[in-house]
Each structure stands twice: as structure tokens, then as C-alpha cells.
Amino acid sequence: MTIEDRDDAYLITHALAKDTLSKIRDADTEQVAFRKGLVKLGRICGYEIIDGAMETEYVSIETPMAETTGERVKGLDDVVIINVLRAATPFVEGLLKAFPRAKQGVISAGRDEEAGMNDDGEFPITVDYVKLPEIREQDTVIVADPMLATGSTMSAVLEYVLEGQATPENLFVLSAVSAPAGLLRVADAVPEADLLTVAIDDHLDENGFIVPGLGDAGDRAFRTT
Ligand SMILES: O=P(O)(O)OC[C@H]1O[C@H](OP(=O)(O)OP(=O)(O)O)[C@H](O)[C@@H]1O
Ligand SMILES: O=c1cc[nH]c(=O)[nH]1
Ligand SMILES: [Mg+2]
């Protein structure tokens, strides 16, 4: 078990997750390596979610040599992954390697950077496009976004994702880098969500960027400024 229970979140502590995050934090890591790093991190996080939160069942197998008992992960058909456009796209590509049969939802939600943060440290969020699958009671829902900064985007996204839906068995908010303020905001807004992250960073700067963080994940992955 390499998901470590913290008061504010569960940390994904796999050594390769930390190694990969360190590479993409580096300002010298260019677009292709950055994007591939996010894909790799998504895959590792997916494996860690399976290892830490999903059950296995015994199955009987006939090998070419003999009959034996093996184990199979339960519930891989009951996984829903929500891609928060746009920075989550490579992260989700990696998650899909762990959950190839997941149902997928897409939501385009972005901070209004011009409006800036209000006195509560919150951004107005613009939601442009929402296409979400049905959520059932037996589902494990993973809402993925590599960056959880003020938590404004994720709080808005979760409202859309959960509205009118059944309560899923597991609801995970998965990020690579989180700021303490964002974790608190999302935990307050949606206490039933389990917050999973590879790192909890120090603070947010005056523009709501995570410090030390990794900069603007969307811009670095998509080569925009
Ligand atoms: O916790 P918050 O303060 O809301 O910030 C986090 C959000 O900011 C980034 O997206 P951004 O708005 O830059 O969009 P992008 O993915 O298109 O770059 C990131 O991918 C999150 O969605
Ligand atoms: O540090 C941050 C904050 C929001 N979005 C990012 O991509 N990075
Ligand atoms: Mg961005």
C-alpha cells in the first residue's frame, strides 16, 4: 500500500510517482517530455488507486501446465474518469492505461484569470462544455486534474459531476500537485470526496499559482503561453 493517509489528503507515495513529478517540475523539461511525464504520472496513479482502493477476487485458471488459482481486480468495468480540460488530457491518457474500460466524462472548466482571485482566494470559473456519463452506486469515480491550486475549478467541476447522480462507491479527486488552500476548499465543498495527490506544496502566489508547483500545466503540455 503506497497511498499514505494524511489529515488533508491521501498522498500517492510510489517512488516512481515522485521521480516523475520531479522531472516535470523542472523548468528545463520541454513540452514533449512534460506531456509524457504527465501521461506516466497518470498511469502510476492509476495503478496506485487499484492497489490501494480496489479489491481482488480469486479465480481459477488453467495454465498450459496445470490448474491454479489467480487473482483478478474487481470493478474495472465500474470506473468513471472525468477529464477536466485541458491540462488533465495527458494525465487521463495515463490513467486509461490502468483503467482501459473506464467510462469517460469531459468538462471544460477554466479560471477567469483576468477577474483574478477574490478576497476568499477563489476564482470565478467558466464552464464551456460538459459531457458526463451516468454515475451508478457501484462506480469508482476519478475526477482528474494535475493541478489543484485554489480549488475553485475542482469545486465547480464536482457540482456538475455529482448533480442528479447516484452516490458512487468511491469518489476520488486526483491531482499531481495540490496547494493546502485548494485541498481545504474541495474538502469543505465535497466532504465525501477522497483527495489523492502526489505532492502537497507550500503555498499559492498572488496570482493563485502553486509554489513551488510546476508552472501552468496546460501551457507547458500544449505549448501555449
Ligand atoms: O484550483 P484552481 O485555482 O481552480 O486552479 C487549477 C486549475 O487551473 C488549471 O487549469 P487552467 O484554468 O489553467 O486551464 P488549462 O488546463 O486550459 O490550462 C488546472 O489544470 C486546473 O484546472
Ligand atoms: O500553479 C498552477 C495553478 C493553476 N494552474 C496551473 O496550471 N498551475
Ligand atoms: Mg492553464
Automatic annotation (TrEMBL):
Enzyme class: transferase
Cofactor: Mg(2+)
Domain annotation Phosphoribosyltransferase: ranges: 13-224
Activation and inhibition: Allosterically activated by GTP.
Record-listed uracil binding positions: 210, 215-217
Residues reported to bind GTP: 36-40
Pfam families: UPRTase (PF14681)
EC number: 2.4.2.9
Binding-site residues for 5-phospho-alpha-D-ribose 1-diphosphate, renumbered to this chain: 86, 111, 145-153, 216
UniProt KW Aminoacyl-tRNA synthetase keyword: no
A single BP term in Gene Ontology: UMP salvage
Bilayer-crossing regions: none
Job of this protein: Catalyzes the conversion of uracil and 5-phospho-alpha-D-ribose 1-diphosphate (PRPP) to UMP and diphosphate.
Family indicated by similarity: Belongs to the UPRTase family.
Protein name (Swiss-Prot/TrEMBL): Uracil phosphoribosyltransferase
